[in-house]
Amino acid sequence: MSGLEISGLAALYIFLLAAFTGYEVISRVPVILHTPLMSGSNFIHGVVLVGAMITLGHAETTLEQVLGFIAVVLGAANAAGGYVVTERMLAMFTSNKKGGAQ
């Protein structure tokens, strides 16, 4: 045995605690800040994408390869979607005035 091993019940407890904490934190974010906050934090899915690609590279069975491929596709779509949402959000704050600065 090497490293930290967590039993199934402890893992479930950690998952439920993290889910409850995440829900409480997100529910307290004002509506006007929710989209910028979430779209700005979508860069984290780039890290998820790298992890999915590494996992896909180590896949041995066909099922592992299929699940890894799906993870890569969904991770890439989520990361790209985050950037699109951020770009559209920033476009709302640009000036539509043409001409010199005032």
Structure write-up:
The protein is mainly α and 102 residues long. The mean pLDDT is 79. It contains four helices and no strands.
In summary, what is this structure?
By secondary structure, the chain is mostly helical.
Please write the string of helix (H) and strand (E) elements.
HHHH
How does the overall form come out from the CA principal axes? flat
Evaluate the radius of gyration. 20 Å
What low-confidence regions span 5 or more consecutive residues with pLDDT below 50?
Answer: none
Beta-strand proportion:
under 5%
Mean pLDDT: 79
Q: Helical amount among residues, as a percent range?
A: over 70%
Distance between the termini: 68 Å
Secondary structure category: mainly alpha
The helix count comes to: 4
Number of strands: 0
Largest sheet: none
List keywords for this structure.
single chain; 4 helices; 73% helix
Which helices and strands occur, and which strands form pairs?
Layout: H1 8-27, H2 31-40, H3 44-57, H4 62-91
Helix pairs in contact: 2-4, 3-4
